[in-house]
Amino acid sequence: MTSFQKTFGQLKTELQKSIVGYDELLADVLVAVFAGGHILLEGVPGLGKTFLVRTLSQVIGLEPGRVQCTPDLMPADILGTHIVNENEHGRRMMYFEKGPVFKNLLLVDEINRATPKTQAALLEVMQERNVTTGGERHPLPEPFFVLATQNPMEMEGTYPLPEAQLDRFMFKIKVPFPDLDSLVEISRRTTGFDEAKLESVLSGADLIQLQHELAETPVADPVARYASRLVLGTHPEQPDALPEVKRFVAYGSSPRGLQALIRGARVWAAVHGATAVSTGDVRALAHVALRHRVILNFEGEAQQVKVDDIITKLLDQVKTPAQEAA
């Protein structure tokens, strides 16, 4: 996996030519890409979330599509629609005009500004990578990713994503505000007329091949059981659940959370030169894989409990195989 480590490093270096800071965020995004998962980026406007997606499409060599969500956006604006057109014989026929979803890398900007009806149009797209319309199924290109951005729910004019929609994102990554040094560097790089010249490191075919190779990274049973215990620990009905989970959590993570942990841990292990997945790889991705799958109850929302704090306590309490053997 030495060649993969080199490729991963090159991708990160190219991204950092245009994006200042965000070292951990870029690593999480690339892990999700190599694991074949969709990504939800959350942060206030103006932090470069949209720019990150555009830059990512350049360095991986994928064809980007973009949807700007607004309350009047309709499903057909994303998926496409049937139109009447004349064929070569002059007869009128119905044709399917493909929407922006038929690209390798779809940016859904400010997804929580779209209405629930339009948000639901992405459910089949993200899970099955198909569009069904007019009784016909249209497969999406491979590889296919959705990178969605959303504003914090405290901001006006937003519609919260339903649990089923959130669950289809592999990772939810929070975009923090830059620190002082990063702000100074941003001012140096972005206030002139010259843009960084980016090189394409991968092609879509290369990416698919690497995804297949990474999916074969072995996961020992004790590691899989540890990841499963973490997921079960988010459920308040479990007899050994943490007091905080029982008190503040309404619903825990679905099995997709476990899939995200294992798939992401395989890539994380390869990034660090390991030949098999360890519990450390699972722990490194627990927050981004589970934070959007743990749903607080009314008391948790009223007391503004942070899901990340609950996951941190869970990581402290659930014993690793090594700790159990000691």
Helix content, binned percent: 40-55%
Helix run count: 17
Tell me about the largest β-sheet.
5 strands, parallel
State the distance separating the first and last CA atoms: 31 Å
The quaternary state of the protein chains shown equals single chain
The secondary-structure class comes to: alpha/beta
Number of strands: 11
CATH domain class of the largest domain: Alpha Beta
Radius of gyration: 21 Å
**Beta-strand fraction estimate:** 15-25%
Return the average pLDDT rounded to an integer: 85
CATH homologous group name of the largest domain: P-loop containing nucleotide triphosphate hydrolases
Query: Do you know the CATH architecture of the largest domain?
Result: 3-Layer(aba) Sandwich
Number of domains: 2
Q: What string gives the helices and strands in order?
A: HHEHEHEEEHHEEEHEHHHHEHHHEHHH
What does this protein structure show overall?
It is a single chain. By secondary structure, the chain is an alpha/beta fold. It folds into two domains: 199 residues, P-loop containing nucleotide triphosphate hydrolases (Rossmann fold), CATH 3.40.50.300; 109 residues, Magnesium chelatase subunit I, C-Terminal domain (Helicase, Ruva Protein, domain 3, Orthogonal Bundle). It has 17 helices and eleven strands. It has a five-stranded parallel β-sheet. A hairpin with a 5-residue loop joins strand 3 and strand 4.
List keywords for this structure.
single chain, 326 residues, alpha/beta, Rossmann fold, Helicase, Ruva Protein, domain 3, five-stranded parallel sheet, 11 strands
